[in-house]
Specification:
The protein is mostly helical. It has 4 domains: about 100 residues, no CATH class; about 90 residues, no CATH class; about 130 residues, no CATH class; about 90 residues, Zinc Finger, Delta Prime, domain 3 (Up-down Bundle).
């Protein structure tokens, strides 16, 4: 089953992308889906080509979001009467993402990359580890060595998680370019998951490597994080041997701490207290940081899309951090939680009290029926009409009736795909993906704490972008 959707010839689609012919892009995509290609894998296959022509990095983020949202579409009602509708929905998600990443696909198809000589673990000096070498390469702005080290691990046949640990550990106490290095690393690995690692891992490594070393100025608060973690009194080593069940409720105080006036050291102490004496899990702490990041986004009104996207970078970084601990459990990546929390706090202070803050309504009428398909169709129309309050009420009713949250976010993503990915660099899709993942992964033992703030920012992202007119959303008769 692993190869289903991976054998079809995509040359017709690539030709259409190279020439930028939207009708042919839609036609070629439809034919591949009709033949049985899987939409999320198709986005991954195009992404592996775009890797070679995407120095900016946002093309891969856009295709990753399209891949994940396409996967969630499988949670929508299916059956013979829905097959055609489902295929057109997949086309509605994929086409804008493909069009928005045309330059990267064109450049990637015509690029013949050469890879460096690997630096194998057997090449290490006696007093060095691969972790030491990665840290030195990152902090010395040596992308060539970073790439050699990763290819060395790849060449030994090391488990892909070993490569990810080295990547995450290497940048865990660095911060540049709005946190994009971590976001690239996590989202790129998800796109690679869609097509399986195997012989495609070099595409990911070669694309990611230039973004990892420090080459731009860092904010001052990063030094506070490093100093805090360098103190032996703040060791997280005991997390490795913990046997007790997580106590994620002890992470909840972080939410108000991060969005308040605490300084960087106090934020670090709060994260440490939640993790070690508090006994919360890394995933639980990551979820609460993401919730705080969603709260920060509410400081910005819907009339300033640029500020909204800037604020969203806190959620994008925090969500990527939480995903790290869904991928692996190594404590080497633990500093990312401290970095994420302090970054969201700094972003909150930078935004200050904006005019026209948006908050989820405290109470809304609950109409729209009982059946999931009817509620999702209503939600689609409300978002297309930019009826945010109506959409929020419908979404809450849908969830309170116990329907599948993945189908809800697939619907929100379907509307988000109407955003012009060329203009917003795919940020609308990325926000919905991140919010959807965080809402779905919200810890069960924190169910009494509402995740409405995360849902609300996803709805806001989908409702208010500048839209394209490439593929109308198909709706039932």
């Amino acid at each position: 089953m692993a190869l289903v959707g991976m054998r079809a010839d995509i040359s017709a689609l690539l030709d259409a992308l190279v020439y930028g012919n939207t009708e042919q892009i839609i036609s070629a995509t439809r034919e591949l889906l009709r033949q049985g290609d899987l939409a999320y894998k198709l986005a991954g296959r195009i992404g592996m080509i775009a890797c070679h022509g995407d120095p900016d990095g946002h093309a891969i983020l856009t295709l990753t979001a399209a891949s994940m949202l396409s996967f969630w579409l499988n949670s929508l009602p299916r059956g013979p009467e829905y097959d055609l509708l489902h295929r057109e929905r997949e086309i509605a998600v994929l086409t804008p993402a493909f069009v928005g990443t045309l330059p990267a696909v064109r450049a990637g198809r015509n690029t013949q990359d050469t890879y460096p000589e690997p630096f194998f673990p057997s090449d290490l000096p006696e007093d060095k580890t691969m972790a030491d070498m990665m840290h030195e390469a990152v902090f010395n702005n040596d992308p060539a060595m970073v790439e050699r080290l990763l290819f060395g691990l790849y060449g030994t046949g090391a488990d892909y998680r070993t490569m990810l640990v080295r990547i995450y550990d290497g940048i865990s106490t660095t911060f540049q370019h709005g946190g994009h290095p971590l976001t690239f690393a996590v989202r790129g690995s998800q796109l690679l998951d869609a097509v399986e690692w195997g012989d495609r891992a070099p595409n990911y490594i070669h694309w990611l490597t230039p973004h990892l070393p420090l080459h731009t100025e860092e904010p001052d608060w990063v030094n506070t994080v490093r100093a805090f973690l360098a103190d032996p009194a703040h060791s997280v080593a005991s997390y490795r041997t913990r046997l007790a069940a997580p106590k994620n409720e002890n992470a909840l105080p972080l939410r108000s701490l991060i969005t308040g006036n605490a300084d960087a050291e106090q934020i670090c102490q709060g994260v440490y207290n939640a993790l070690i004496p508090g006994g919360a899990s890394a995933r639980g702490v990551g979820s609460v940081i993401s919730m705080a990041a969603a709260d920060v986004m509410q400081k910005v009104g819907d009339g300033d899309r640029e500020a909204f996207i800037k604020a969203a970078h806190g959620l994008l970084f925090a969500a990527a951090t939480r995903v790290v601990f869904a991928q692996l459990q190594d404590i080497e990546a633990m500093p990312l939680l401290f970095t994420a929390a302090v970054y969201v706090n700094a972003l909150s202070k930078e935004l200050g009290e904006q005019k026209g803050p948006a908050q989820p309504p405290a109470s809304l009428g609950l109409g729209g029926g009982l059946l999931a398909p009817a509620l999702l169709d209503t939600l689609t129309r409300q978002l297309l009409d930019r009826d945010l309050d109506g959409a929020f009420g419908t979404a809450r009713r849908y969830l309170r009736l116990g329907h599948d949250a993945r189908a809800l976010f697939a619907t929100v993503g379907l509307v988000a795909s109407q955003a012009d990915a060329t203009l917003d660099q795919g940020h609308t899709l990325q926000i919905v993906q991140a919010a959807g993942e965080e809402f779905i992964a919200w810890p069960r033992d924190l169910a009494s704490t509402s995740a409405d703030s995360i849902l609300y920012v996803a709805l806001r992202a989908a409702a208010f972008p500048q839209r394209n007119a490439l593929v109308p959303i198909p709706l039932p008769e």
